Amino acid sequence: MNVALVEKLVAEKLETAAATVRAEGWKWVECSATAPAGYHAMKRHYPEAFL
Predict the structure, then answer these.
(1) Upper half-sphere CA count for residue 39 (Cβ side, 13 Å)
(2) Tens-digit pLDDT profile for residues 19-47
(3) Backbone angles phi, psi at 36, to 5 degrees
(4) What are phi and psi of 26, to 5 degrees?
(5) How sure is the predictor about 2, in pLDDT bands with cuts at 50, 70 and 90?
(6) How much is the pLDDT for 33?
């Protein structure tokens, strides 16, 4: 198995998904093939309409 190729393909796939999310109006999108420690405890943030 070519690990470098797999990592490259994963990064490209994640970046494609991130571009879709950015197009929805999100200002910050971070791509990562691994979840950080404590990920399950992070709160979810929803977009807010500014009046």
Answers:
(1) 6
(2) 999 999 988 888 887 877 777 777 888 88
(3) -70, 160
(4) -70, 135
(5) very high
(6) 79
CA of 10: how far to CAs of 7, 31, 49, in Å?
Answer: 5, 10, 32
- Select the more confidently predicted residue: 44 or 12: 12
Q: What are the residues whose beta carbons fall under 8 Å from the beta carbon of 15, sequence distance 6 or more?
A: 31
**Distance from the Cα of residue 16 to its chain's centroid:** 9
The letter for the amino acid at 50 is F
How far apart CA 37 and CA 41 sit, in angstroms, is 9
Half-sphere exposure of 28 (CA within 13 A, CB side): 3
